[in-house]
Amino acid sequence: MQYKLLGNSGLRVSELCLGTMTFGEDWGWGASKDESRNIFERFVEAGGNFIDTSNNYTNGTSERFVGEFIRAERERFVVASKYSLSTRPDDPNGGGNHRKNMVQALEASLRRLGTDYLDLYYLHMWDAMTPVEEVMRAFDDLVRAGKVLYVGISDTPAWVVAQADMLAELRGWSRIVALQLPYSAAGRDPERDLLPMARARGMTVTAWGVIGGGVLTGKYNRGTNEPRRYEDASERSRRVAETVGAVAADIARPPSQVAINWVRRQSSNMIPIVGARTEAQMDENLMALEFELGPEELQRLDQAAPIELGFPHSFLADPEVRELIFGRTFTSIDHPSRYGVK
Hints:
By secondary structure, the protein is α/β, with parallel strands linked by helices. The protein folds into 2 domains: 305 residues, Alpha-Beta Barrel (TIM Barrel), CATH 3.20.20; 35 residues, no CATH class. It is built from 13 helices and 10 strands. The strands form 2 sheets. Strands 3-4-5-6-7-8-9-10 form an 8-stranded parallel beta barrel, surrounded by 5 helices. Strands 1-2 form a two-stranded antiparallel ribbon.
């Protein structure tokens, strides 16, 4: 396991992050406590130190398990949790991004985890109601109080994240170091705005759903009785799964490892979140670190379902439009790629 700096910070995190949404059987499909511990220990043995959970995962069981597993060596681990999703469905303040929910959710998470601070605290999903000023000032207060070390944001429009981070930078508040989002060879929507924004603002991207909810393992193409997250998969996803399977067969690797590898190769600021229901699945996921896809394999996967960037990206990349902007000089300019210009 190698390590990366988390965003514009000096914090070192493992190149894979352990996702713990499967810790606990409250939702009917997760891992038992003993199996969760085996998964955790296997990840740690491989050198992993970055753990991802949330206040709502398996109704709080995930945080309780994580807290117990890290207790003997709390300082060693970088523990991330999240707030926003409702824990009291009939209470209008039982969820959301506002300060009241942020504070009460954090206190509950700290109790379940058995710790007095979080290394990384994410806003989980944007509620489109709370001002970004309230969110970022409340985050900064938690950092100054020592209850949170770093802040992140998940599942939120790029323009909101950019606004929030710029506001924090200008006011001297804690900036966003990590952006969490779904990303896989079958789901490349973040390439339009979120990934270029994260690169421009110096954020690490922690990617969930890297095997497409199991679709990229090929089980939706095989017509088996294997456990499935979805009733069916789109034609596009099945097509990508076929290509992932073909690449995997050519290099004698399981499709899941190919899918994880594709995400790892997309950017130096990308950290896949890998979860598992069994220790064997975690072993298989970790073996994705043993190899790298070559240019030919990457090209095959990219071409399986190319992303359509749409306006304004495709418009601005048109050669005629570029000539309007740059004349005949575009290819002569050694420009930074942080804004997604290629």
